[in-house]
Amino acid sequence: MTQTSSHGRPRVRGTGVRVTDVLSLLAAGAAEAEILADYPYLTADDIRACLQYAAALADHTVLIAS
Questions:
Q1: 3-state SS string for 27-53
Q2: Is residue 14 pLDDT above 80, yes or no?
Q3: How confident is the model at residue 65 (pLDDT cuts 50, 70, 90)?
Q4: Among 6, 24, 46, 56, which residue has the least CB neighbours within 10 Å?
Q5: Taking Cα atoms as reference points, which of 48, 52, 44, 41 lies closest to residue 17?
Q6: pLDDT of amino acid 1
Q7: Are the C-beta atoms of residues 11 and 5 closer than 8 Å to each other?
């Protein structure tokens, strides 16, 4: 689950961790276990929520003006 900070950036609910930080770590090859060790207040469900958030953003309709 995500929440939006006062600066408009999505964060993992109940933490100060930005969703983009988690996604960047995954994209760089970090394993889930490594992320959880570095951020002990995150859970595996938090990581999945970040992925779900990214998938939802990637699957939006794009309208092209003609």
A1: HCCCCHHHHHHHCCCCCHHHHHHHHHH
A2: yes
A3: confident
A4: 6
A5: 41
A6: 55
A7: yes
Would you state the structure tokens that stand for residue 2, as one six-digit string? 């995500």
55: left (phi over 0), alpha (psi -120 to 50) or beta: alpha
Residue 64, token pair as written in the block: 């092209």
Helix (H) or strand (E) holding 19: helix 19-27
pLDDT tens profile 34-57: 999 999 999 999 999 999 999 998
Containing H/E element for 2? strand 2-4
